[in-house]
Known about the structure:
By secondary structure, this protein is an alpha+beta fold. 45% of the residues lie in helices and 29% in strands.
Amino acid sequence: MSQDDGCLICRKIVDNLTSAVMVFDPEYRLVFINTTGEMLFADSARHLVGLRAQELLTASNQTIENQLKQCLATGVSRTERNVVLGLPERQVTVDMSLTPLFEGVRPISVLIELHQLDRHLRISRDEQLLAQHNASRILVRGLAHEIKNPLGGLRGAAQLLDRELNSGELREYTQIMIAESDRLQSLLDRMLGPSKPPQKSLLNIHRVVERVRQLVRVEAPAGVSIECDYDPSLPTLYADKDQLIQAILNIARNAIQAVDERGNVIFRTRIHRQVTIGGQRNRLCVKIDVIDDGPGIEPDMMSQIFYPMVTGRADGTGLGLSIAQSLINQHGGLIEAISDRGQTIFSILLPLRNGNE
C-alpha cells in the first residue's frame, strides 16, 4: 500500500468519527476539519479553513486561543468535561480534548476533538420516544380489538331492532345508536393509524411541502403569515407522497391553530448528516421543520404529545400527532419537537438510504 493510499484511508476513518476533529496551526488558524466538524458548524471545510479559533469557538471558562497557546507551550494534552461552547449561531455542550502534534520535539499544531454530549442525549431521547410510541400503539391496538367486537354486536342489534319497529319516533333512537356506533368505529380506525404499508416512489420533497403549504394557506386566518425556507440542493426522496402530505399537514394544522388569528408559520427544509434514529445511524437525512411563533407547548405536555388522545385544546381529538408519527415511523423516520414561549419547532427526519432504493 502506498503512502497516498494510507493517507486516504486515514482521512476516511477521521471523517467517519462521531466526534468533531479540528487541527489549528501556531497562529491559531484552522487547517483541517472532518465531516462531523462540518456538521457541527453547519458549514463546509472550504469556508471554515483559515478562520481563527476565536472566530469559530468561544468557551464558558476561557478563550480557545489561550488554551491552544498553553497546549503549544507545554506540549501536554488536556481534556475538559462538560464545556459549553459558543458556536456562531448556537451553544453546544461537549467534552473537549486538546492534543499537541509534534515535528521532532517541537509542537507545531494542536488537534481539538469535540465529543458532543447533547447529541447523545438527543439519541437517547429519540429512542425513548420511539419506544413510547410503539408501546402506546400496542396498547391502543389491543384496546381497539376489545372494543370493536362488542361495538359490532351493538350496531347489529340496533339494526335488527330498527327493522322490527313500526314507530318512526322509536326508530329515531335506533338510528342514533347506529350513527354513534359508526362514529366510534371511525374513531377507533383513526386511533389505529395507517393500516397500509407506504406506496413509495421517487419524489421531490418540496412539492410535497408546497402542497401542504397551499392547503393550510386556504384554511389559515388572514392575519397568519405562512412562509418557506427551502434548501434547493435536497435530493429526491423515496417515499409515499400521500402519507407524507398527511403527516406534514397534521403538524401544520396544529401550528396554524397555535398562532390563532395572527402569527407566523415557516416551512423549512435542510439536509442533515450522521443522524441516529432508533439506534440506526443514517449518513444523510432530510429534515423538514414546521415552525410557529405561538405560545408554545406546556413543559408537562411535551413528553405526551405523541400519545393518542392527548391534546391541549378543548376541541382537539389528540390523534393528529400520533398518526403523523406513525406515518413517519413507517418511513424509518422520526418526528421531534422542541418548544418555548414564542417558538415551537416540529422536525420531521427522513433517512436517505442507499440512494433511496
